[in-house]
TrEMBL record:
<protein>
    <submittedName>
        <fullName>ERF superfamily protein</fullName>
    </submittedName>
</protein>
<dbReference type="InterPro" id="IPR007499">
    <property type="entry name" value="ERF_bacteria_virus"/>
</dbReference>
<dbReference type="Pfam" id="PF04404">
    <property type="entry name" value="ERF"/>
</dbReference>
Length: 218
């Protein structure tokens, strides 16, 4: 994270901003997991007037890498000239193809969807917004807390995403993560429960359909 030499004025303004913003209600459904989330448009609609009242503004810029990754840079500005610049976040746009495999997507629609997702994620983060998207019952007292899941769990989840033909972007949005590797131990039980429910939807309640990733208890 980069910032101006002083953020004294910005900090005061941000505290006032957060004092005026209550939990933002969700306005769109995630069909893959029958959950809801707040769209970028709703976030901006609710927060922009309060930001302006406190001399704040958020700027976001799309970024690209030669590797094909697409990213977003988010900067929080104050009218005094002070700023906080979040670390850029990158992901590779992907689409599912025949056989449940993923390939790099190069069409404008895939790029636009990814940029919108990254903007929403980083916008919430830099303003510390409460959108009520954290799963109930997964507080920090759970084993592991905010630690990331291990390689076995990553392999299991990747296998289920492939076998159940789950939209990766919608899954990551549900999991509140930028990648499967960044899913937290805290959220793992709820995520696995959702994936297992999806498995029942696809294969039936009594299905013994194997999952490519193997067992989470391997």
């Amino acid at each position: 994270m980069n910032k101006s030499e002083s953020i004294a004025n910005l900090a005061v303004a941000l505290i006032k901003f957060n004092g005026k913003v209550s939990a933002i209600s969700k306005d769109k459904k995630n069909p893959q997991f029958k959950s809801e989330y707040v769209t970028l448009d709703k976030l901006i609609e609710i927060t922009r007037p309060i930001l302006q009242t406190n001399g704040l503004s958020v700027m976001q810029f799309p970024l690209t890498k030669d590797s094909g990754e697409i990213g977003v840079q988010t900067i929080l500005l104050h009218e005094s000239g002070e700023f906080i610049e979040g670390n850029p976040i990158f992901m590779t746009p992907q689409r599912m193809v025949k056989g449940g495999q993923y390939e790099v997507a190069q069409d404008p629609q895939a790029a636009g969807s990814l940029i919108s997702y990254l903007r929403r994620y980083s916008y919430q983060a830099i303003l510390n917004l409460n959108t009520g998207e954290d799963d109930d019952g997964n507080d920090a007292s759970n084993a592991g807390g905010n630690a990331f899941i291990d390689k076995v769990a990553v392999k299991t989840i990747e296998g289920m995403i492939k076998d159940l033909k789950i939209n990766r972007m919608e899954f990551l949005s549900y999991a509140h993560a930028m990648s499967v590797e960044q899913i937290t131990v805290k959220n793992l039980p709820v995520i696995m429960d959702a994936l297992n429910k999806k498995k029942v939807e696809v294969y039936g309640k009594n299905s013994d359909q194997p999952i490519t990733g193997g067992s989470i208890n391997d």
